[in-house]
TrEMBL record:
<keyword id="KW-0411">Iron-sulfur</keyword>
<dbReference type="Pfam" id="PF00111">
    <property type="entry name" value="Fer2"/>
</dbReference>
<comment type="similarity">
    <text>Belongs to the adrenodoxin/putidaredoxin family.</text>
</comment>
<dbReference type="InterPro" id="IPR012675">
    <property type="entry name" value="Beta-grasp_dom_sf"/>
</dbReference>
<feature type="domain" description="2Fe-2S ferredoxin-type">
    <location>
        <begin position="1"/>
        <end position="104"/>
    </location>
</feature>
<dbReference type="InterPro" id="IPR001041">
    <property type="entry name" value="2Fe-2S_ferredoxin-type"/>
</dbReference>
<protein>
    <submittedName>
        <fullName>2Fe-2S iron-sulfur cluster-binding protein</fullName>
    </submittedName>
</protein>
<keyword id="KW-0479">Metal-binding</keyword>
<keyword id="KW-0408">Iron</keyword>
<dbReference type="InterPro" id="IPR036010">
    <property type="entry name" value="2Fe-2S_ferredoxin-like_sf"/>
</dbReference>
<dbReference type="InterPro" id="IPR001055">
    <property type="entry name" value="Adrenodoxin-like"/>
</dbReference>
<dbReference type="InterPro" id="IPR018298">
    <property type="entry name" value="Adrenodoxin_Fe-S_BS"/>
</dbReference>
<keyword id="KW-0001">2Fe-2S</keyword>
Amino acid sequence: TKITYVMFDGGERAVDLKTGVNLMQGAVANNIPGIDGDCGGACACATCHIYVDAAWLPKVGPRTAMEDSMLEFAEHVEANSRLACQITVRDELAGMVVRLPEAQH
Ligand code: FES
């Protein structure tokens, strides 16, 4: 499943991720800078903050309550802010674009 990560400086990295991995794991495995995943994907660190491109929000679905409360620790949170470790790759997300926030650079 192709996912494109857009860096804060505008650089793009398109990677092919397997179904079932989350977007934090996918970024770390592909050395995408700006997603640290300090807590290992437990929704407990907010170092995997990303913005989901508006077109994909309906497919990604709403934030969980835990994700919402963790995002309070992130900077520059927007309506489309998500934690990458809480988004699992599946076929419907093919072609999705996510952006990285400034604070993680
Ligand atoms: Fe820690 Fe996502 S990796 S909240």
